[in-house]
Design brief:
single chain; alpha+beta; six-stranded antiparallel β-sheet; 15 helices; 35 strands; globular
Length: 634
């Protein structure tokens, strides 16, 4: 998850440096993998200054070049040859000084002292497109008279760099897949460490319905897969390029701006974690949206032009006649937003994570939306996200909200309730925490204390915390905010003695063999227990198949260690490592269909511990005392 440092500051007050923010997030369990400075203009306008053209004369050897002297506020004026038709004495201009690096796409060039038709030039007077602030190349930039000579261009244009924080979100922390989600954790850390801070996000007071010209009906037929579906129509939109502030936000976090409507939906997703989808309202036949599954094999073409066959377990968003979208995964061709689009329907929903995950795997489609839906979004953030998107459509596209929000929520998702005992917390953490600290941290984490007594508290957990359902989950949350480093290491270690069993003896033997093999020049390898069924030819009936494989390369459990070792040899040989000695210890798995028994399903399965060795290449190579010798089986 890419987080913008400046964007994060819009939601929570802090004065930490980007490096300190990274340390704080890592300590709360949102581990930061990388921190990178990002500039909205490539190069950050370094080496560019405001200058004043003191003199401007025709070049003696050219009919279109001019020889100028320019004051950069550094003492002696610089002589610069300029080919722009609008250059004149007395102008305030932007000058690239010697050593400045300018960019043309991916190419860069350095401003050096040079001669143009026999006249020395010590810099360059720049046009808009040459420094990246615009597309105009008709002439040089002419600044207002009040521009101060010597001011760095970055300061003159108020150019500020941002910092991109790359957070590794574990599969259970779906609540951290947005700037608002990360801000919640940072807020709790700031409070825990004594910082004065507040959280704030835009309210929805600007949302208003302009008319009721385009009502859309919603029917949820599959209520298992779709728990909540809301939509609103916006008419008279002007689909165009987004403003700079929106484009900069998206490009900073690695998204490509497309048009203002699509950019708004992406902005809401990155800001609040709720994926949205926008349909061209004129393609919603019958002005009706039906959420349902389609018959097995129904053809469906996605926005990228690829045709898919829908499964009867794929949830589809349909109009009155046809499917328009694979719910939560990918839009259909013809239902998106185009330059000719005037009226749109915005969708905001909560889909069952398992349905979305299986559909995404089934069709080999992985999108930012499916990544969030299959981990679990906030079912109570649906309407807020929709209202914020509608407000932005009004402001950035001139649209009119043309219906009351249609919100179909047949079976509301309840917040989890957890009984937490103080003794349990202290025993699990290994330190006695004051009950007041426990309650305070829970409140900082948006958990509501419903009931309390001397023994503990009853907490209501917000629905967006899909990973907090049990007392031990709450303790983990308390500890990551309290700080693992604040739990002292005990001075005593308690242990118990046990009798060695078969597993211990087997482990000792494997260690003994491993040490001997390493002494003979072997390297131990560890391969995946999952492998491809194609390796096993006609033995398919005896393979242990995976019910929901990640890919066809990892769809069965291995029956032998052989193929994993051969893959390791192939990988090394392809990288010029020819002489190899490998060994591996590991389990292999087989299925016996004749022993299949409904009363004891495990009877048909067998797991065995194997050892395997591989030798290839030269046994001896490059020795002064022995000629080269190939490895042999013996």
């Amino acid at each position: 998850m890419n987080i913008s440092y400046k964007w994060l500051k819009e939601y929570v007050d802090f004065d930490l440096t980007p490096q300190e923010v990274c340390e704080a997030l890592t300590s709360t369990g949102l581990e930061v993998d990388a921190l990178e400075e990002v500039q909205s203009i490539k190069g950050g306008l370094r080496g560019l200054y405001v200058g004043k053209v003191l003199t401007c004369e025709a070049h003696p050897n050219s009919d279109h070049l001019h020889v100028t002297t320019v004051d950069l506020g550094k003492g002696e004026p610089s002589q610069i040859v300029c080919g722009a038709p609008n250059v004149a004495a007395g102008q305030k201009v932007i000058v690239a000084d010697l050593g400045c690096v300018l960019y043309d796409g991916d190419q860069e060039f350095v401003i050096k002292k040079s001669k143009l038709r026999g006249v020395e030039s010590n810099g360059m007077i720049c046009a808009e497109d040459e420094i990246g602030i615009g597309n105009d190349h008709s002439g040089i930039i002419v600044l207002p008279e009040d521009a101060v000579v010597g001011t760095p261009a970055a300061e003159y244009y108020h150019l500020e760099s941002d910092w991109l924080i790359e957070v590794d979100i574990t599969a259970n922390r779906a609540d951290g897949l947005s700037h608002w989600g990360v801000a919640r954790d940072l807020y709790a850390w700031l409070k825990s460490n004594g910082h004065e801070t507040q959280m704030h996000r835009p309210d929805c007071s600007k949302f208003n319905v302009d008319n009721h010209d385009l009502p859309v009906e919603v029917v949820i037929e599959n209520q298992e897969a779709c728990k909540r579906y809301a939509c609103v129509s916006i008419t008279d939109c002007e689909v165009k390029e987004s403003p700079d502030w929106l484009k900069n936000k998206l490009t900073t976090v690695g998204l490509r701006p497309i048009n203002n409507i699509v950019d708004i939906t992406n902005y809401i997703m990155m800001a609040y974690g709720q994926p949205l989808h926008c349909f061209d309202a004129d393609m919603v036949k019958g002005h009706k949206i039906v959420v349902k599954t389609m018959p097995e094999g129904t053809p469906f073409q996605t926005l990228d032009g690829v045709e898919h066959k829908l499964s009867d377990r794929d949830l589809a968003i349909c109009n009155a006649e046809d499917p328009m979208c694979i719910a939560g995964v990918f839009g259909g061709k013809g239902s998106g937003t185009y330059e000719t689009t005037k009226n749109v329907v915005l969708e905001s929903a909560y889909f069952h994570p398992t349905w979305i995950r299986k559909s995404a795997r089934r069709h080999g489609l992985s999108t930012d939306a499916s990544f969030r839906f299959e981990r679990g979004v906030d079912p109570n953030g649906t309407i807020y996200a929709l209202q914020q998107a509608a407000i932005l459509c009004q402001e950035l596209a001139g649209g009119k909200v043309s219906m009351d929000i249609c919100d179909v929520y047949p079976m509301p998702i309840k917040n989890a309730v957890v009984e937490l005992k103080y003794d349990y917390v202290n025993n699990l953490i290994g330190k006695n925490l004051n009950p007041g600290i426990i309650q305070t941290i829970c409140r900082w984490l948006d958990m509501e204390v419903k009931y309390e007594n001397e023994q503990g508290v009853t907490l209501e957990i917000p629905a967006y915390r899909v990973d907090v359902q049990r007392p031990c989950d709450v303790v983990e949350d308390i500890l990551r905010i309290y700080g693992y480093n604040n739990v002292e290491i005990p001075t005593q270690l308690k242990s118990s003695l046990v009798i060695k069993g078969d597993e211990d003896r087997k482990h000792k033997l494997a260690n003994l063999v491993s040490e001997q093999l390493v002494g003979e020049g072997f390297n131990e390898i560890l391969n995946n227990s999952l492998t491809r069924s194609a390796y096993y030819g006609d033995k398919q009936d005896t393979l242990v198949h995976i019910m929901n494989p990640l890919s066809s390369d990892l769809n069965v459990m291995r029956q032998t260690l052989l193929f994993g070792g051969l893959e390791s040899i192939q990988y090394n040989v392809n990288r010029k490592r020819q002489n190899l000695r490998f060994f591996e210890f590991g389990n292999v798995y087989t299925f016996n269909p004749e022993k299949q028994n409904d009363d004891d399903p495990m009877q048909a399965y067998k797991e065995q511990y194997h050892a395997a060795l591989w030798v290839t290449g030269k046994r001896v190579e490059g020795s002064w005392a022995h000629k080269n010798e190939d490895s042999r089986f013996y």
